[in-house]
Amino acid sequence: MTVLDSPLHARLFAMGGAVGLADLEAIGVDATQADRWVREGVLRRVRRGAYVHNDAWQAGDRATRRMLEARAVLRGFRGSDLDAGQIARVGSGHTALAVHRLPVLHDDPLVVLARVAAGGAYRHPGVVVERCWGPGSAVQLAGVGVVRPEVAVISHALRSGLEAGVVACDAALHHSLVTTESLMAWIDANARRPGIRSARQMLHLADGLAESPGESLTRLILVGAGFPVRSQVEIGTDAGCFRVDLLVRNVVIEFDGAVKYDGADGRAALVAEKRREDALRRAGYEVVRLVWSDLTDPARVVQLARTRMR
Q: Which residue segment(s) compose the domain that 146 sits in?
């Protein structure tokens, strides 16, 4: 019997490719056997007592890997199902965001958990545990307990800063995981929580029309400079109607998150983009294209927009 025909494969399939040591022990696999499968490339250890299916890890993009890692770590912390009412801690902050498939700006080795019931916050090496966010704040998702998306976004803003919070908030709004009203309800319910004012600011700056973290960050730079910014605006031209990422007066701001002009398809896309830009310019608009490296110099982004503005 091969490994892939074994109970390990069945357990990995049932757990979506992420398991804790307790999951392995439930099928008779001890830490020594798990270590052997790590050496053989069947499993990948992402943290002590937390494993993912190596094939799924290798095939996954950055968001998928974050999700698998977070779920494996939470499986490693779990003692029972949330539905049984016995689990003491669930994923929160960026750990929960990864499970909800919401963007996290920077990789963070810290595991963020939240209490399910009463009790104070505490931390120990590599782990921080927040106090309970209130009744109904914990949910079961993809085999692990996490805080609901509203709480994950708010927790992340409090812990990682305004920019990180807005990026996550934009995405949660865009994908209809939360609403402005549901976010405000959780903020109000935790009005005495330290730092909660920053979550209100996050919500004030959020825009569910944003389609990528790069758009969110670009918008924050432009708003911070005092520009009137509109997201995902439809503009009519002599070549058709085009939707642009951001519009500041007469300046179209487009964010290119990745190089996408390689090969025949890429060249065709480049030609199409050139025709689109030409049409926008004939309609009286200036076009500024940005990539990730531009966002490391906010002053340059502001200057690029300002020099083309009427």
A: 78-208
